[in-house]
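Structure request: histidine kinase, Streptomyces edwardsiae.
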Amino acid sequence: MTGDKAEQTAPVFTGRRWFFPSALIHELDPDSTRSGRRPRRTVRDWVVDFACFLFAVLLGVLGAETLNDSQSIPHALAVTDQVLGALSCAAVWLRRRWPLALAAVMVPVGFVSETSGGVAIIALFTLAVHRPFRYVAWVGGAQAVLVPLYFWWRPDPDLPYLAVLVLFVVLTAATVGWGMFVRSKRQLMLSLRDRARRAETEARLRAEQAQRLAREAIAREMHDVLAHRLTLLSVHAGALEFRPDAPREEVARAAGVIRESAHEALQDLREIIGVLRAGESDEAGRPQPTLAALDTLVAESRQAGMKVTLDQCVTDPAGVPASVGRTAYRIAQEGLTNARKHAPGTEVTVSVTGGPGQGLTVSVRNPAPEGDVPHVPGAGQGLIGLTERATLAGGTLEHGPASDGGFEVRARLPWR
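Returned structure:
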């Protein structure tokens, strides 16, 4: 099970990690990096960083040639400019770890060093990729403010002052826009990852809930079926125990009922265990009983020695929906089982009435037993299960003592 979950949550790019930035891999798959340490650079990171370094060095070399050709710049200032440019090019390798610090430092450095212009552009782009827009706005705004002062201090001999300002403002805006576009693409991938993981989690929860509901339904079936069969066994075994001098025919009939009930209970138990093992629904195995099987249920109860009166007034018995008929059958079965355990010897009345559009009413009622009745322990789980069954079918179920001291279970089920 653990292996299956790991395979479900594994990133889809496992075989192409070299193609993704290390920061994105860390966000998509945090378990791939050890805690407390930064993720290792991928092949793509090394290629991009080396390309940025070459770009910064190329612009630095072009700026150095311009400084050497200019006669208005002192030699000491030109040397200082080139030293700062070399240090800035080396600092490009730190742009992933400290993007904000590097971009902030490059604002004053780029103002006094012409050879550091490429590094300033790279640092601004990296800041736009890795940090929110408010940081980019502060750094980019500072650079935009210093651009007029820079070209007033160092005018370009080939372009007019206004044209140079417009060019650098457009370059800065393009750099910021490109970096924000890359950041938005990464955030989109992260959001799609989160959505996929949420979908997998919700699907797993739905599957677990469906499995739990199926097992609860199977448990209810187990209680309803086996309780009825085992109660028959208990009644006939008790009769044989308290009447050892019963006629041979009656003993043989009771033994036959015990054998048949035990066989049915074992068969039902095998089917339920088979469903649990196979993971199928509770509709596997034999067809589930419906309202048409109510006569057979009453006949079995009478054969066990109970006094049962069946009052069935249904307009269209064949048109009863299967789910409603099955619920009605289980209610009658549980009611007869409880009456046999808690009110032996009484006459139980099972009433089923209704029709299409009117609903179906199922009632199981028994009077108060006469004499002392041995206490039979019960947890009331059967009545709780019946209430859940009726609620799931869209109906209601009521149970409790009657006015004459007996007990009644009454359910109303929809029949549209």
